[in-house]
Amino acid sequence: MGRDKATLVFEGTTLVERVVAAVTPRCSPVFVIAAPGQPLPDLPAQVLRDEVRGVGPLVAVGRGLRAAADAGCQWAFVCAVDMPYLSADLIDMLADPAKRLGVDIVLPWDGRDHYLAGIYRTDLSSAIADLVAAGERSMRALADRVDTQRLVLDPQKALTNVNTPEDLP
C-alpha cells in the first residue's frame, strides 16, 4: 500500500487508535505489536516491537499471546489494525463459544476465515514457535494444526478491513 495502515486517519482518528479504543472495553491488558521503528501515536496499550520486519502475522501473534499469557490471561482477542469498524460486540460474539467449547481458536467465518479477528488461547504461543521454527508464516498453518471452531456469521461491518486508502469510505 506504500503507507503504514496503523497511522492512516479515518474519521479524525488513526486506525490503531480506533482498534485500541474498540477492544479496550473487553480486553485488558491491550497489546499492540509494531514493526521496528514504526511511529505510533500515544496509546492506552502496551506496545511490543517486532524484532524483524516482514515476517508475517504469525510471529507477531505469537509474541502477543506470550505477553497475554505472562499477564495471566487464558484467552486473547487477536485482531488486525486495519479494521476501522471493529467493535466490542464482535469480541462478545466470539468469547462465549471459546470458553464454552474449550477449543484453541474461535474465528468468525462469513464466507472466509478472519484469522486476525479471533479469540485465541494464549498457550498457543509454543505451537506458534514450533511452526515458525519449521518455516511457517501463515495464520492458516496454525488454525489447521490446532482445534479451531469457525463461527458462521452474516457479513459484519466490524470485519471490514482496509488494504488501500481507497478502501476507506
Automatic annotation (TrEMBL):
Keywords: Cytoplasm, GTP-binding, Magnesium, Metal-binding, Molybdenum cofactor biosynthesis, Nucleotide-binding, Transferase
Protein name, UniProt field: Molybdopterin-guanine dinucleotide biosynthesis protein A
GO biological process: Mo-molybdopterin cofactor biosynthetic process
One Pfam family, short name: NTP_transf_3
Lineage: Bacteria, Bacillati, Actinomycetota, Actinomycetes, Mycobacteriales
An example Gene Ontology molecular-function term: nucleotidyltransferase activity
Transmembrane segment boundaries: none
MobA-like NTP transferase domain ranges (all copies): 1-144
Signal peptide positions (record): none
Alphabetized InterPro entries for the sequence: MobA-like_NTP_Trfase, Molybde_CF_guanTrfase, Nucleotide-diphossugar_trans
Keyword Oxidoreductase listed: no
Matches recorded under NCBIfam families: PRK00576.1
